Amino acid sequence: xxxxxxxxxxxxxxxxxxxxxxxxxIRLTASSITIIVISxxxxxxxxxxFTIIVPIFxxxxxNNFLFIYPELASQFISDTLIxxxxxxxxxxxxxxxxxxTKYAYKPRQAYMTAIAGVALLLLAYIGLEIIxxxxxx
Length: 137
Prior knowledge:
Elements: H1 3-11, H2 15-24, H3 30-45, H4 48-53, E1 60-61, E2 64-65, H5 77-100, H6 107-136
Antiparallel strand pairs: 1-2
């Protein structure tokens, strides 16, 4: 090969190298880092890591489909999905409560946002308590 072709070939990056360069040059904002960290925390609180390591699929027992594992020692995949959904509802409720404090100049909007936040937070709490009571009994 000629010297010019060798130089062009060595300067050309493979698609993988271009992909790695593109990823390594990404600059994340503070809000995107916060969203990633909160998503990871909710995933862990919901039992996502346990479900990845020990996946148990819900069975049919006496023509009934079990969504919630009847013991505290383990969980179904559906347990994880339910708990993650409830944690997200609680977090959105907290965000709504926080947003309601920003509308001091619009009392009606602040009140409605606060009511929605409290409702979501209470629904998440009550749902998690019901699931825990089902698992304990």
